[in-house]
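Hi there,

I know you've been waiting on this one. I reran it after we fixed the sequence typo, so this is the corrected version. Both the input and the resulting structure follow.
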Amino acid sequence: MSDTLGKNRVIVVLDDLDDNSDKMRKTILQEQPKIRQLARDLFLVKKGTDQQKMCYFEHNRKPDFS
């Protein structure tokens, strides 16, 4: 997908998680380094997250792979 659309048009979403903390996000990025290479951002969505909250979050968050 990244080859076709370009890295800036690809995001990775992991849904229905028990833990969506920054620590978990960093762990996933360390264990799956290709995400940084092939996607603009990684979103972790906790179980039961309201879709409206997720849309607000997505529009107001800048990508951060630091």
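Quick highlight: Residues 3 and 38 are 8 Å apart (CA to CA).

Best,
R. S.
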